[in-house]
Amino acid sequence: MSKPSSLTRRAARTATVALAAAVCATAMTTGAGAVVNGTDSTERYPFMASIPLTAPAAGLNDGVCGATLIHPRWVLTAGHCVDPAVGVELDGIVRIGSPLRTSGGTVRAIERTVTHPGYALGEGGGGANRDDLALVRLDRPVGEQPVRIAARPGRPGTPTRVLGFGSVVDIASVADAVFASRLQELDTRRGADGECTPGRAGSTRLCTVSRVPGAMACNGDSGGPQLQRGRGGRWELVGATSGDGDTDPTCSTGPGLYTSVPAYADWIWKTIHRYD
User: Which of 16, 26, 91, 271 keeps 20 to 30 A from 85, CA to CA?
Assistant: First the structure.
């Protein structure tokens, strides 16, 4: 979808829900139900997952990160969502397929987390996170239908949609986050690399622009899905919420930055096959 100790507005936007202690990871995501100026979900997303967490050093006792079911026993999230260096403490469960943050769906225990070997936080919290992905293995398979990973991201201008349970308000401190109780969605588009601050977007990071004024993902949305329509109009996974796309301090006023999931498909499937 939060970060270290006391998030500055920028950290709040940049790191996404979970973060803590004194590291400014990249957070991103939103308000009023999760995504800032998003709307309640308009359809069922059986692959949407949430990972409850806390960040005690940051005063966060009821946080969340987003995740996406890509295999009956695996969800994909952001690397910084499971990084203890940012002060995150996972509750040890994942909730799958519910439009509600704290009830419904299928709940499974976390058996294992595998962070991409190249993962690193943006320097000083000001740059883009690198290889910001992690896989979470569930203790048992679930019956919900996983989403397909897109073969490639659409070209700039392609309509996309982001989902999350993140903070519904722009915040100066993660302790002030107000997380959505119901899943939020926001219609977005793939932006050109130049629409984000130079050096942030590229082949592995997608610049994402809201199609609604004053809206974008925020704290707590980290790790959640960015979707695009594939064959037959079905949703495909193209991105995972990672951070902010520019240097503006608030979630709602600028582009978002999403890890390109198709760029990591080989690592994802090799990892899953290794542990299954």
Answer: 271
Does the annotation mark 6 as catalytic? no
276's tokens: 């299954």
Region class of 43: left (phi > 0), else alpha (psi between -120 and 50), else beta: beta
Domains of the chain: 9-275 (2.40.10.10)
Q: What is the pLDDT of residues 124-140, one digit of tens each?
A: 556 799 999 999 999 99
For 226, other C-beta atoms within 10 Å of its C-beta total: 28
For 150-253, where are the E strands, in sequence order? Answer: 159-164, 184-190, 205-210, 225-229, 235-244
Rounded CA separation 233/228 (Å): 9
Amino acid at 101: R
Q: How many CA atoms lie within 13 A of 119 on its CB side?
A: 23
The DSSP 8-state label assigned to residue 59 in this structure reads: T
As a whole-number percent, the residues of the chain with pLDDT over 90 amount to: 66
103 is catalytic: no
Residue carrying the six token digits 């219609």: 187
Say which of 6, 41, 222, 252 is annotated catalytic. 222
In whole angstroms, what is the distance from residue 134 CA to residue 153 CA? Answer: 19
Place of tokens 């957070």: 27
Choosing from 6, 50, 80, 83, the catalytic residue is 80
